[in-house]
Amino acid sequence: MNRLKGIFLLASSAVLIAGAALAADDTVKIGWVGPLSPPGGYSAGKEMKWATQLAVEEENKAGGILGKQIEVVYEDTKGTPDQGTAAMEKLVNSDKVAAVVGEFHSSVALAEIAVAHKYGIPWIGTDVWADSITAKQYPEVFRVSPANSLIYSIVGNWVVESGFKNVAIMQEATDYGVGAVAVLKGILDQKGIKSNVITVQMSQQDFTPELLRLMNVNPRPDLLMMIIAGEAVYPIIKQACEQGFAPSKDTAIYSGGGPSLEKELWETTGDCAKYLISEDVALPTAQWNDVAKSFSANFQKQFDRPPTGTAMESYDDMKIVAQAIRDAGSTDPKAIIQALEKIKYKGTRGDYGFSTESSPAWAFHQFMKAPIMLIQYDQVKQSPDQAPILYPRDWATSKDIVMKPEK
Amino acid sequence: MASYLLLQAANGVVVGLIYALAAAGLTLIFSVLKVVNFGHGTLYMLGGYAAFYAIRLLGLPPALAVVAAMIALFLFGIAFERLFLTPLYTDKVERKDEYAIIVTFGLFMLLENAAIVVFGPFNRSAPSFVRGAVHLGVLAITYDRLIAAGAAIVLLVLLSLFMTRTMIGRVLDAVSQSREAAAIVGIDARRYYAVAFGIGAALAGGAGALIGPIFTLTPTMGDLPSVKAFIIIVLGGMGSVPGSIIGGVLIGVVEAIGVAIYPDADRALAYSSAFSALLLVFMLLVRPTGLFGRRHMRME
């Protein structure tokens, strides 16, 4: 009897293993990395995952790639580099993915690309801005979002052209925050614009002591900038408004990094976000192509919220990888990388292609035409695509380069 | 300069009182059950969301929603104690301290991640108690903050009265001083553990509900207040409710003044928690039992 049991168990195991192996051959596996739980930016991660799911649904409905359905393996990197490394090791060695897309935190991305480079697996960053990610010039690494140098040179030029003289910058002490401020300060220092950098803890909720301190200095800053990707921006906006500091006729307020584009901005700040300035990595609505319009409508329908630029990046990222695998005609990593280098893809954010220039260093495998614009809310509960565009001026829908409240 | 520091201190007092409320719950749980509740921050978070959904789904006014949240967390606390902590009082568990840490830490992990799934990852904000602000010079203190601080004072005073003027409160106080001595006079401490945990949870939930209109609601909103609560109860003295009040106010003021006067203005805000930690270190060196702690207190 025991022998029979043993034989039965062995046979069942063999069938299961064979079945799993067969099932694995039926799909093309792509890895997805991003924060889905604390301490990572899980709200952004959730939106990115939704957008990826939409992209995969569409691809699979259209027949998949290379005659197979796409199977995405989602790994929660929790916003910590060690989790990023662990996720990549699992995706590459255990799940045997053809490529990896995603990530929201630059610090985590830097850990992930080390693994991608070690194993030669293509990795395409979704919304990670630190220059160093592509500046390492790993052949496997590509990026669909802008780099800090691209974004903050535009933001810096806007600050200069708007005539601000005294800027207070609240930064998160991460690869993104520090890198962004370095680019921004470089421009401000060059133009003789005074700037003070204040480092914040992301978990903090009461910023009143710091805001009081800024209000007590003479002269008071005329622009308060937040280079913070997390939800710490919401209490800062609310408390700056409650204190009568910003937005006011004397001090404007800018938020970089994403949360200022979410609909929760209005729920958490009330009407304090009116006159908030933010950058957006999507194209102006007037320039949306059919892909952008279709994606936006589907996203709104499925998730009851308009997609942010981050969601668009995520959608395009997955579509680009799918296209690259199609162009390569195989899931061989080297072939996919070669296909990515030559790719021409029409996405929600315009026509994608990756630079192969090595100077500046961060330009390597960077989407150089990533759209960047500065918007300013002039109505309460306004969505980002409805907000007036301040900059670049050839896209501007506002006659003023910055709008200020009357008091 | 003096008026500027006073303004900073005023803001610190207001915020510190709310943290003191959460700390009072933690100190009560510790003093009676001798359990360090690592899940206390999540109780604070649950209170915030309970009030939010009481307003949104039941249409309760914000003030009543705070009461509803406290009742909900009281019942939750009792249920948690009965379900997961009763092995501590039997011989089934050998390493009781480690068991308590694992169970309460597990509570923290489970609830925080469950909150992301159930409440969603996006920030929320509860409606104001009363819109508007009082202006003290440059400082604007919103009515929400004043109401929250006032409510915290009322709740803490009620707690003190409960502990000194009611039979159950005196029993809890007796058990917190010494289980053995309480047993000698006929008090079965195990009968009151659930009440203590329930009250502690209710206080944490109340603090979270009061903070809802002031800051934002997120599944991780309890992480930093949890750390501050631990600092406060050690500073004020383990098991001392008046100590929690004084400790909370001290923390709030020290952090606010620290940010105001720290020479490197660019790093002052990032170091705000370090100022209270330094105060804690100083207190441990000078008076290890805290301001109002009991010398004989130890883990039984």
Q: Helix and strand layout, with pairings?
A:
The complex is a heterodimer of chains A (407) and B (300).
Chain A (H helix, E strand, L loop, with lengths): L1 H24 L1 E8 L7 H20 L7 E8 L4 H14 L4 E4 L3 H14 L3 E3 L6 H4 L5 E3 L4 H15 L3 E7 L2 H16 L3 E7 L7 H9 L6 E5 L5 H10 L9 E5 L7 H6 L6 E5 L9 H14 L5 H20 L4 H10 L2 E3 L2 E3 L20 E4 L12 E3 L16
Parallel strand pairs in A: 1-2, 1-3, 3-4, 4-5, 6-7, 6-8, 8-9, 9-10
Antiparallel strand pairs in A: 10-13, 11-12, 13-14
Helix pairs in contact in A: 2-12, 3-4, 6-7, 12-13
Chain B lengths: L1 H32 L6 H19 L3 H24 L10 H24 L13 E4 L2 E4 H23 L1 H11 L1 H6 L5 H22 L11 H14 L4 H21 L3 H4 L3 H15 L14
Antiparallel strand pairs in B: 1-2
Helix pairs in contact in B: 1-5, 1-6, 1-8, 1-9, 1-10, 2-3, 2-4, 2-8, 2-9, 3-8, 5-6, 5-8, 9-10, 9-12, 10-12
Overview of this structure, please?
The complex is a heterodimer of chains A (407) and B (300). Chain A has 407 residues and is of the alpha/beta class. Chain A has 2 domains: 7-146 and 289-363, Response regulator (Rossmann fold), CATH 3.40.50; 149-280 and 377-391, Response regulator (Rossmann fold). Chain A has 13 helices and 14 strands. In chain A, strand 11 (345-347) and strand 12 form a beta hairpin. In chain A, helix 3 (81-94) runs parallel beside helix 4 and helix 12 (309-328) crosses helix 13 (333-342). The longest helix of chain A has 24 residues, at 2-25. Chain A is elongated, with a radius of gyration of 23 Å. The model of chain A has no long low-confidence stretch (mean pLDDT 92). Chain B is mainly α and 300 residues long. Chain B has one domain. Chain B is 72% helix and 3% strand. Chain B has helices at residues 2-33, 40-58, 62-85, 96-119, 143-165, 167-177, 179-184, 190-211, 223-236, 241-261, 265-268, 272-286, and strands at 133-136, 139-142. Chain B has a two-stranded antiparallel ribbon with strand order 1-2. The model of chain B has no long low-confidence stretch (mean pLDDT 88). The chains are: A alpha/beta (407), B mainly alpha (300). Chain A binds chain B through residues 36-39, 42-43, 45-46, 170, 173, 196-201, 203-210, 212-213, 215-216, 231, 234-235, 242-244, 259, 262, 264, 267-270, and chain B through 4, 7-8, 11-12, 15, 112-113, 116, 120-125, 133, 138-140, 142, 211, 215-216, 218-221, 223-224, 255-256, 259-260, 265-270, 272-273.
